[in-house]
Design brief:
CATH superfamily of the largest domain: NAD(P)-binding Rossmann-like Domain
Low-confidence stretches: none
Shape: globular
Number of strands: 11
Strand content: 15-25%
Strand order of the largest sheet: 2-1-3-4-5-6-7
Radius of gyration: 24 Å
């Protein structure tokens, strides 16, 4: 691949353009908002000038509702040798292209499983896709050259290719991406009118659950409008679980011992099913989740503190497998949770104490 055209210079489009440009591909940028394309170009993602002729690859990075029309226009004008989109839904756009009578042999639907709460070219980065799954949805109509170019794109972005059926992909992302977004927003919405004293009690749990609720609503309306059925199916199942959980909780507050017992069983069931589901989420490097021990350390909110504690862990010969920080309300300090292999706990705790850290193991 020597030349590419990226149509749509938001977070995903600009990130792909930055990755390609950084690896020697001549990238042209196009957007319905010329100012946004100029911003992406100023960041080094390519040029906002139109190509002189057909490029090797056209990457369509526009909202799902506009994917088919944008692709159809590009295909009919002979823009590229190969065409792909990076929308978060795959079945709908392909069926729209079929209805428009487009030649689908030169097209491949793809979806990089990467993103951020922020959008636009200023949020983009060439490393956005590194180590992340990038779904490819070829069919029997897909030309081999197109598939090879798509695989080259994934390699240049340092992502991991995953081949799936388009509709199976849409059901999968409804479960692992689209539904969590709505559930996060639903929980965060409870905070909008909550008493200030309750909000001040927010800890790491509520921060974890509501992190993605900061996402752009307009972007998510576009995504959910393209995949409403599978998301509604999952939410319907969640709603049934919620009804059962509410009944179980009402049982726990009953004066009747039998009802309290049934309530406890119901709550235990949902918690255990949650344990079982969580255990299937891939862990570090995509492997099965490992069991780590946690060392909690009081850390000040000053420059260099994180570097110092990591360096001290290195002196102890311990690899930090994961890390979380819980900020103390109203104080210039917080608690850092260091996740390590169980056998490393004693040595790391001793080293950190020797180095002056307040360890809350």
């Amino acid at each position: 691949m020597r030349t590419a055209l990226v149509i749509g210079t938001g977070l995903i489009g600009t990130s792909a353009a930055l990755a390609l440009a950084g690896r020697g591909v001549q990238v042209h940028l196009r957007d319905h908002d010329p100012a946004q394309a100029r911003t992406a170009a100023a960041r080094g993602a390519g040029t906002d000038q139109e190509p002189d002729g057909p490029v090797d690859l056209a990457v369509v990075a526009v909202p799902p509702a506009h994917v088919a029309a944008t692709l159809a226009e590009a295909i009919r004008s002979g823009t590229a040798r190969a065409y792909l989109d990076v929308a978060s839904v795959k079945g709908g756009p392909r069926r729209e292209l079929e209805a428009l009578g487009c030649d689908l042999s030169r097209y491949l639907g793809t979806h990089p499983m990467a993103g951020r709460e922020r959008s636009g070219p200023m949020a983009a980065g060439a490393d956005l896709f590194e180590g992340r799954p990038w779904v490819l949805t070829p069919t029997h109509e897909t030309d081999t050259e197109v598939l090879n170019i798509a695989l080259e794109l994934v390699a240049l972005c340092r992502a991991v290719p995953v081949v799936m059926d388009a509709d199976a992909h849409d059901r999968a992302v409804a479960l692992v991406s689209h539904t969590p977004q709505l559930l996060s927003s639903l929980v965060a919405a409870r905070l909008e009118d909550a008493d200030e004293t309750a909000v001040r009690l927010c800890g790491q749990g509520i921060r974890d659950v509501t992190r993605i609720a900061a996402s752009d609503p307009r972007m998510w309306i576009d995504i959910l409008s393209a995949n409403p059925g599978p998301v509604a199916d999952i939410l319907s199942a969640v709603a049934a679980d919620l009804d059962e959980t509410v009944r179980a909780l009402r049982g726990l507050e009953s004066a009747d011992d039998e009802k309290r017992g049934e309530g406890a069983v119901g709550i235990e069931d949902v918690l255990r099913r949650g344990n079982a589901g969580r255990s299937r989420v891939p862990g570090k490097h995509g492997a099965a989740p490992a069991v780590y021990e946690t060392i909690t350390v009081l850390i000040g909110d000053q420059p260099g503190e994180l570097a110092r504690i990591f360096a001290d862990a290195g002196r102890a010969g311990v690899n930090i497998e994961d890390v979380r920080i819980e900020h103390a309300t109203g104080q210039q300090a917080g608690l850092i949770q260091l996740m390590v292999e169980p056998g490393a706990v004693a040595g790391l705790a001793a080293t950190l104490r020797d180095r002056g850290w307040s360890v809350r193991q």
